[in-house]
Design a protein that fits this description.
Blueprint (H helix, E strand, L loop, with lengths): L3 E6 L3 H7 L9 E7 L3 H11 L2 E2 L3 H5 L6 E4 L7 H10 L3 E5 L6 H14 L3 E4 L6 H12 L5 E9 L7 H13 L6 E10 L9 E10 L4 E7 L2 E4 L2 E4 L4 E5 L2 E5 L13 E5 L22 H11 L7 H20 L3 E2 L3
Helix pairs in contact: 4-5, 5-9, 7-9
Length: about 325
């Protein structure tokens, strides 16, 4: 199989922005059909991209020409059932983030794909943001020495679900753990919900202790907007401190945002590289495409760009954030 035929379930913004194959990928993916809970939305989408509109997800997955089903529905309440339906019909599956409502649902999806021999991947697209790649590469290159502290912050208010964007922050933090386990967590949240973590609302902040003692702080924090008399403030996107220095990275999603903008480094030893001069830190301009790696996984059996197991870890971390925030105490964990 060289060309992968695609069907999309969910025809909202996520489908259009991330999952409609672009001309640059047209030799690898062909979009054939779509389905949506709102039939008029599916018809509009189908007309826009000159594809077939299916009446139901069942009709779409029964199409023998389709190799890959992309589940782009929001919120994630339908992800598990739709993924299991597609896998049952022998389809490879991409699920929009968050992977599912619970880590238990994630496990069901992983087990089903493994039993069927199909590829399951999760679209955690913020793993390809330049600010994250700079932080990741700083750790890989060891410019900070032994890591003592890592902060990963974004902004939030007091109302509204924090799961949808918060899963990005958590997923990035899990990747930056460098393969080590987190053993302790404490957290606070504006409106946590232990029984249904996906309904937690507003800002949150969590402290995670890695097995080697390094402290990871992550959250979505309230922003002081400021006024004519007082400047607004927002935390750096990433701050990493080690025994050899500290690095701060401001928001920078793509090279077009200003490649490398906002990287600041200060060495621990006087006379070494100073602010704005990170030694040998380079993030590649050739940011790998999620779908390029997915094509390799489907056609050549390589590991998918985001495995179900790694995405499940992020969902489990969110559950633990909510639990720690509700119980208002530190919790011993193995994550």
């Amino acid at each position: 199989m060289s060309v992968v035929n695609v069907g999309i379930i969910g025809t909202g913004n996520a489908a259009r922005q991330f999952h409609v194959p672009t001309p640059g990928r047209s030799d690898k993916f062909i979009l054939l059909a779509c389905a949506d809970a709102i039939s008029s939305s599916a018809k509009t989408f189908a007309d826009e991209y000159s594809i077939d509109a299916c009446e139901t997800p069942q009709e779409l997955v029964q199409n023998d020409e389709i190799d890959l089903v992309v589940i782009a529905t929001k919120p994630p309440t339908t992800h598990r059932d739709l993924a299991l339906l597609a896998i049952e019909h022998g389809k490879h599956v991409v699920v929009e983030k968050p992977m599912a409502q619970t880590s238990g649902e994630c496990t069901e999806m992983i087990d089903a794909a493994r039993a069927a021999g199909t590829v399951l991947s999760v679209h955690q697209n913020r793993r390809w943001d330049v600010d994250f790649l700079n932080a990741r590469d700083a750790l890989r290159q060891g410019i900070l020495g032994e890591l003592k502290l890592l902060r990963n912050d974004y902004s939030a208010g007091y109302e509204g679900s924090s799961y949808d964007w918060g899963i990005h922050i958590i997923d990035q933090t899990m990747v930056l753990s460098e393969g080590m386990t987190f053993v302790e967590i404490s957290a606070t949240m504006a409106k946590p919900n232990r029984d249904n973590p996906t309904e937690g609302e507003g800002f949150f902040s969590a402290n995670l202790v890695r097995e080697d003692g390094a402290l990871y702080q992550m959250g979505m924090l309230p922003v002081v907007q400021g006024d004519a008399y007082r400047p607004g403030r927002m935390s750096p996107r990433f701050m990493l401190a080690g025994i050899r220095g500290v690095m701060m990275q401001d928001w920078c999603q793509t090279p077009m945002d200003g490649f490398g903008a906002g990287i600041r480094f200060e060495a621990a030893e006087e006379g070494s590289a100073g602010f704005g001069d990170p030694p040998s830190l380079q993030a590649s301009l050739a940011i790998p495409e999620f779908y390029d790696e997915l094509h390799e996984a489907i056609t050549n059996g390589s590991e998918p760009p985001v495995t179900g197991e790694s995405a499940r870890r992020s969902v489990r971390a969110w559950e633990l954030v909510c639990r720690a925030a509700v119980e208002k105490r530190s919790i011993t964990i193995e994550l």
